[in-house]
Amino acid sequence: xxxxxxxxxxxxxxxxxxxxxxxxxxxxxxxxxxxxxxxxxxxxxxxxxxxxxxxxxxxxxxxxxxxxxxxxxxxxxxxxxxxxxxxxxxxxxxxxxxxxxxxxxxxxxxxxxxxxxxxxxxxxxxxxxxxxxxxxxxxxxxxxxxxxxxxxxxxxxxxxxxxxxxxxxxxxxxxxxxxxxxxxxxxxxxxxxxxxxxxxxxxxxxxxxxxxxxxxxxxxxxxxxxxxxxxxxxxxxxxxxxxxxxxxxxxxxxxxxxxxxxxxxxxxxxxxxxxxxxxxxx
Amino acid sequence: xxxxxxxxxxxxxxxxxxxxxxxxxxxxxxxxxxxxxxxxxxxxxxxxxxxxxxxxxxxxxxxxxxxxxxxxxxxxxxxxxxxxxxxxxxxxxxxxxxxxxxxxxx
Lengths: 282, 106
Fold this sequence. Notes:
The complex is a heterodimer of chains A (282) and B (106). By secondary structure, chain A is an alpha/beta fold. In chain A, 36% of the residues lie in helices and 21% in strands. The mean pLDDT of chain A is 95. Chain B has 106 residues and is an all-alpha fold. Chain B has 7 helices and no strands. In chain B, helix 1 (3-15) crosses helix 2 (17-25) and helix 1 (3-15) packs across helix 5. The model of chain B has no long low-confidence stretch (mean pLDDT 91). Classes of the chains: A alpha/beta (282), B mainly alpha (106). The A-B interface holds A 14, 18, 56-59, 61-63, 80-82, 85, 120, 148-150, 188-193, 221-222, 225-227, 229-230 and B 4, 7-8, 11, 14-15, 53, 58-64, 67-68, 73, 77, 80-81, 84, 94-95, 97-100, 102-106.
């Protein structure tokens, strides 16, 4: 039927795995923003959730690394991480193979995408789902952009992938929500974990909210690395959502650095109907 | 030989409980079949988190290996710092490509 929700959120494993080490006041405000994101997705009437991930060598490795991949299965197991380490119990999330196949078929018209009939979720998807579909009652369509193993997916191709996904979401009869997950500036899992460039993050989110294609695509990887760490490469997932939102204005609902979570914890969404109120669910 | 196969082993270890059981039973034996140098084998058997980081293993792969060994987060970060102090800047991989030398860059 149409894309009914588009947003982005953080996915750092510390969000659940090191929850007890964070400033509780800031952490709880962030968790509350995550809950509101879940409520907004539910209120949109979404019947399936596409998650744009920047997965971390859980399924894809340098032996055969796709620029883009979409899952095509009826279920997905996770997390691959130790459950106690991540703070998320082992789960099986529902998929929808038929819906995935229709979306992939449409995306392939304009973007070259690999498909995967099995996919193990790592924290990049497991942490968002822990907050957004905690009962695992909404079918998930996982998608991935290579943000980890250079050569990385070019930013303008991530944009084109977002446009392809929008066309696909609008072409299926189901109501579709799409959420991109990733960090902005961060140096995850390195000795510099906890370093955050808040000014860079806020400038990026300003470009994201304006949905300014040229400004979002003007980054290059070496400059991103210098200012935002290798975790900054994950802006591809945010940029993909900008393209899927097709020029809509965005709002940042929460963005605060939480060093023990290693990132500026962020919740943001696009108003797909501009200044008009969201149409009522028929 | 080289970073690719070190990471390939860790990638397969991280996502496969069967390989994890093999690793726990026989750390050296499970490495048969991977093109590894003696230095790489020792780092994986020890395990030497600092040396593996120096060799260029991506932290997104390495942190799971540390968790498998019940190494706490703060200890994991310190072991990487110690590895850089002992062995020098990251030798290969995404961090070396981006000019990352260890700690407090950028």
